[in-house]
User: Fold this.
Amino acid sequence: MNIFAKLYYRLRKAAKAVQLYLVIAGPGIVVMVADNDAGGITTYAATGAKYGYNLIWFLLLLIPVAYYVQEMTVRLGAVTKRGHAEAIFTGFGAFWGWFSLIDLMILDWLTLVTEFIGMTSALEIFGIPAWLTYVAVVLLLGTIVLNGRYWTWEKIALLFCALNLVYIPGAFMVHPSVQDIVRQGLVPNFAGGFDGQLFFFLMANIGTTIAPWMLFFQQSAVVDKGLLEKDIPWGKFDTWLGSVLTVVVAVFIVVVTGTVLRGVDIDSAAQASAQLQETHHWVGTFMAIGLFDAGLLGAICISLASSWAFGEIFGWAHSLNTNIKEAPWFYASYFLALVSAGAVVLIPGAPLVLITLFVQVIAVTLLPAALVFLILLLNDRQNMGDYANTPLQNAIGGTIVLLIIILSTLYGVSVLFPNLFG
Amino acid sequence: MYRGVSRLARKFRAINARYHRPQIGMSPAVRVSLMVLRVYLLLLVALMLYKFVSLLGS
Assistant:
């Protein structure tokens, strides 16, 4: 009897823990899955096509990298109740604040353009014209945010996150060799030797794993959701789950293109989808659906990251729990970014390739600054109290941040000077 | 139009005044980090300008 009572007690405790997690789940998973945006999908597809399964081990290393950076935003948001933009303004003054805000605005807008490029090219595979995709996306994203509740927005975003898993059945449908995946993918190796091109791919994969908007987005989402200090462990778990999920999706994309498109030069995920359709119709279709979903999720989060940041600094009401009458500027900036970025894709002859490259270069100016500010803010014991970084967290977080800064800088420089690394 | 611009300018001045003084403790580590960041960003801007000028030249 005693055993049954104990078992019942443990089951009840586990059920309550799951219930509690489901209430708190959201910002971590959404930001991490949205990180697999249109640009990210292209990078993973190209990585698989170029190197097969050989870089899967490297992608797995990115799980702790993404986690340790993003969990700091959870603590910072839950303790200070400030978004990342406001935290920078308050902590480091107006100069660094404006630098970050303006940089974020430009970068987010350019990234939004790339999300629209991904979405329109994905649906063009199904014969849907770009203008129709643009109108539908703006209407859809408008409907999602205008319901006046953070909770509803988050659950819809989580639904789109679930759709991101469409790559997993796709990978099973191409019948990859599990033995090859384990042998080539899980043992660290540099297929064909370490050259400039491999270095470029490694840096591109890191660049897609940590983007500046993610820091701003997750911290603001934590604040808007109203997470408290006591929720931090669950917020961290949410971030951990999200970082695992995002890398798992990336690995499955690599498996698909590594199995079917090995040796093919991939310029975009849409091109990969179209090529996949020729031999594996449904896999190509799943890839195109996933690309559209990735762009949509990216657009949802990136446009909000900017609007939250502006609201924090200009003192506008800036919560998804407000309606359009209560927070007109918050929603105006959200729609302005969406409508204008999407419209660029419809302009005939717009320099879309240049914009895509420019995103990577601008990101290099903001990412190091945002990461340095993050580490410094997490060491501010006066504001963070018991939640400040411990020496171990500083050692792990500091090393990761330093590596990201070095590699993302080299990536940005290699985009500016393509022949620099051979 | 003029009223709108002047209201915006007032808003920017208010923000600058509100965040005039950094609240984080300016320990030597923070000062060094911010200095390194400044140098890093200046170098990056210089690289971008060089690229821009060389593109114009070609």
